[in-house]
Structures are given as structure tokens and as C-alpha cells.
Amino acid sequence: MKDPKSFSRQLDSLLIKIGKDASHENFISSIMNELVNNFGKELMITDGCIYDQRDTKFLLVYELKENTWAKEISMDSPAINLIKENNSYIYDDPVLRREFGCKIESCLTPAAININTPERQLLIVFGLYDGWVREEISLFINAFQMALSFRLFSDIMDTELTKAVQIQQSLLPKSAPKFPGFDIAGQSIPTIIVGGDFYEYFETDEGYLGVSIGDASGHGIPAALLVRDVVVGLRMGLASRFKLTYILKKLNTVIQKNSFASNFVSLVLGEFEKDGHFFYVNAGHPAPFLIEGNKITELASTGMVLGFLKDLDVQRSHVHIRQGSVLVLYTDGIIERANEDGEQYEIQRLQDLVMENQKKSAREILDLIYRDVYNFGGAVHWEDDASVVVIKRV
Questions:
Q1: For residue 233, is pLDDT > 90?
Q2: 306 and 211 within one domain
């Protein structure tokens, strides 16, 4: 074997490559080839193969040199039991070697690692010829096993996270609707790649515009899946022209049945008429507010958050939005953002900002809100999901 320092650097280089190289169909076999080419002479590795679990057997799916290895190995065999117990194993017992197709008189010794992911189980086997050193082989295959297992698991997690991102992106509006007499802008910023905030617009054939904003407890994939259920439920309910209170009660039942007890959703759901009337329900969400000159009207809660109690008691309320008035819906990530002294942004600061800029467009007001809140928090990463919808009657 070459000197330990040089070997260590070369091994580190390969492990980094495992973590960085782009995944592809032949990713594992290509890494295995490179490994044997780089370390074969030093570690006495001359061959290798890959087995994939299929039902009650491990089937040979790749081999460096043809017709060397057994085409299949039973899941109940002593050799498989050993590697399941140890995750890696050097089969220097001549009888156990035979289970991999190595003849008793052959000097080829299988050294195998077990790769488990939620999707599959693999055996990666290296063939050692005479002169190998146990400590060196153990160090090598264990490092390889850890690096490859982590990489494959990370790929799966990235795939699942990508799915969650796609779910959330598909739920958020691509653009604001063109509703006669209203100027509308909305945005949502998750604290991590996916979050629990959402907002939505619903246009109906009857000439109404529905709008919702909500906050599902938690972050990440569980919150994204809960948001998906809520938004789909809202779309179905409004498309069927159900009453607002009925829609929320049905949603509450769905969340109670299909979620963990700790999951809940605060939500504002309302419908605009072209003459400015806005009928809404507020299920435990931070109160939207209406700015009209120097007057502030808060749309207080009309019921409990969804998912908290089995039987939801929620009422419908109403407000009229006159020309020039600005309605702001938001989540608590806006008003609870803190500065370096621990002081929160709070509702009063938000209302003052909108009042001072109420003559601007909905998009300009939205951008001002995010800029001011972001800077208030020291221009650092958002600690909570932050969503805002600004609706101005023009």
C-alpha cells in the first residue's frame, strides 16, 4: 500500500466525488469502476459486482469481469445474514466464499457492503486477491459504504423535497387575477424551501372573486402536504358554490381525520362582489385590515382555527370596500419578525406603513411591506414563512 497520507488524500477525493457527481443510471457502477482503477493495486482489489434485492433473492445486476460471480444469492443464506448484521463483511471463510460463486480453491475473497435506502437494498462486492490486509480493507469499504449510503439517501430526500416544492408552487397563484375595479398583488416567502403559508384566488362564473390566505402549522413537507389538502378543499368548495362557513366546517373535518393532532390551519376566506362588498370568515387568523384614509377597520376572527376542535363554530362577516381603500391580508411571519433587540414588527407598524402609502398601487404597497419588514429584521433570513396579499379598490 502507498503511504498513509497519500492514500488518505486519494480516498477523501473519491468520497467527495461520490457526494458531488451528478446522479445517473450507472452512477454506482461508474464509481465502483473508478474505485477499483484507483485503489486496486494498493488494496489488492481485482474485481467487483453489484447485487439488487428482488423478492427473496439478491440478483446480480452488474459485474466488472463477466462470469465470475453467482447470478443470484438467497436472502436466507448465511453470507447474507452476516452482512445484514454487520453492514460490511470480508468473506475469508472458503465455504462462505462459494455463495458468491468463488470456488473453494480460488484465492479470490469477497468483501461486501450493504446499501439500504427506502427504495432498494443493494450488495456491493469487491473481489480481493491474495495479499490483502484486513485493517486496510475494513477502513476502505466502511468509508465507501457510509459515503454511498448518505449520497443515495440524500438523492431520495432531494427528490421528495423537490416534489414538495412542486406541490407548493402549483398551489400558489402564478399571477394576480384581473378583477374589474380592483388592483391585486400577493406574495409568499417560505422560511425554508417549502413552508406552511399559502394564499389563493378563486374566480367564479357568477362574477365573484374569492381570496384566501392561511398558515398551516409547522414547516417543510408535512406543512406543504397539509396546505395541499386545504387549498384543494377550498377550490372544490368554492367551485360548488357552497357557503363559506360550510366549506370551513368540511375542511375542519378533513384535517381532524387525516392529520396529526398537532396540525392546525388558521385561515381567512372571503368573496368580493364587483360593488365592493366583501363577505368573509376568519378562522383564527391574524386580522386583515382595511385602510380608508385615516380609518382602520380590522377583520377580526369569526371562529377557531381549523383542526383544533372536532366541531368548528365559525361565523360569516362583512365589510364594504370603498374606492381608494386598501385591504391587507398577511400571515404572522410579517408582524412577528423581530429585530436584533427582540422587538417585533407588530401590526401597528404595518398599518402605519400602508396608511402612509395607500395611494400607491397594490404591487408598490406589497413591495414596500416586504422591504420594510425585511430590513427591520436586520436583512437576515426569514425565521418564519411570510405572506401578504394587498387588494385595492380603484
A1: no
A2: yes
**Is residue 282 predicted with pLDDT exceeding 70?**
yes
Residue 251 cell numbers, joined:
375542511
Shared-domain flag, residues 369 and 258: yes
Q: Is residue 305 part of a domain?
A: yes
Nearest to 39 by CA among 70, 67, 13, 68: 13
Mean pLDDT check: name the lowest of 238-242, 267-271, 380-384: 238-242
Amino acid of residue 119: E
* Domain co-membership, 194 together with 301: yes
Report the pLDDT value the prediction gives residue 14, as an integer from 0 to 100.
62
Helices (H), 172-243: 220-239
The one-character DSSP state at 130 is T
Q: In whole angstroms, what is the distance from residue 8 CA to residue 44 CA? A: 17
Instruction: Report pLDDT digits (tens) over 147-197.
Output: 777 677 666 656 656 666 666 666 788 889 999 999 999 999 887 666 688
Within the chain, residue ranges assigned H as helices are 4-20, 27-43, 78-86, 94-97, 134-171, 220-239, 244-258, 332-335, 346-356, 362-376
Burial 160-178 (b: 16+ CB within 10 A, else e): ebeebeebbeebbbeebee
Q: Can you tell me the distance from the alpha carbon of 290 to that of 285, in angstroms, rounded to the nearest whole number?
A: 15
Which pLDDT value is given to residue 103?
Answer: 60
* Three-state DSSP state, 30: helix
The helix (run of H) or strand (run of E) holding residue 320 is: strand 317-320
Give yes or no for a contact between 304 and 283, defined as CB atoms under 8 angstroms apart.
yes
Rounded CA gap, 251 and 260, in Å?
A: 15
Range of the domain at 181: 172-393
For residue 166, being part of any structural domain is answered with: no
Q: Are residues 151 and 19 in the same domain?
A: yes
Q: Three-state SS for 260?
A: coil
The last residue of one of the domains, among 137, 159, 181, is: 159
What's the CATH number where 130 sits? 3.30.450.40
Alpha-carbon Rg of the chain, whole angstroms?
A: 30
- Residue range 222-236: mean pLDDT, rounded: 82
Confirm whether pTM is higher than 0.70: no
pLDDT of residue 295: 97
Is 326 inside any structural domain? yes
The whole-number pLDDT of residue 261 equals 46
In this structure, which amino acid lies at residue 156?
A: I
